[in-house]
Amino acid sequence: MAKLYFNYSTMNAGKSTVLLQASYNYLERGMQTYLLTAAFDDRAGVGRIESRIGIGADADTYRAGDDLFARIRARQAAGEIACVLVDEAQFLTPDQVWQLARAVDDLRVPVMCFGLRVDFRGELFPGSATLLALADEMREVRTICHCGKKATMVVRYGPDGTVAHDGDQVVIGGNETYVSLCRRHWRAAMGEDVPF
Fold first, then answer.
1. Has domain 4-141 been given CATH number 3.40.50.300?
2. Quick one: which of 4, 17, 65, 148 has the most CB atoms within 10 Å?
């Protein structure tokens, strides 16, 4: 039975690694997958999903205005697919999340989305908020703070090395820009007086 899955975490938790492993498992059994990633995240190259541990795969890209239901239906017409895997799902629009839900319901294909839950301010991304509302199953990909506790938040550093408190919700970057922290250390990094 097809379902809409949301696999979420903070930065550097291994979401892309889990996505690539899931795709590999399908391919190993002779089943085709359809990979999608955000067009503007070109850190690994346009249309490329890559993990920090060195594995990667080519993917189709999506932009905010794209109809993902139509794209999945067209891909199915070209050949059977066992699963759709979406990287950087926080960048989906709410309408696109509904399109993915329709693909699950009407095209009967499982859709696994992988993305961040919250931004550097501790606020939900619109795509993530809609996935939290619509997903049939949610799974947390866990990572840890420097203190050893589970990291649930992320801070963003500016070019001058200071923690950003405001700015655009989306700034593409990696380890040089973002650090995952537990809530207590995030509060401290954001300037709150936190007893340790």
1. yes
2. 4
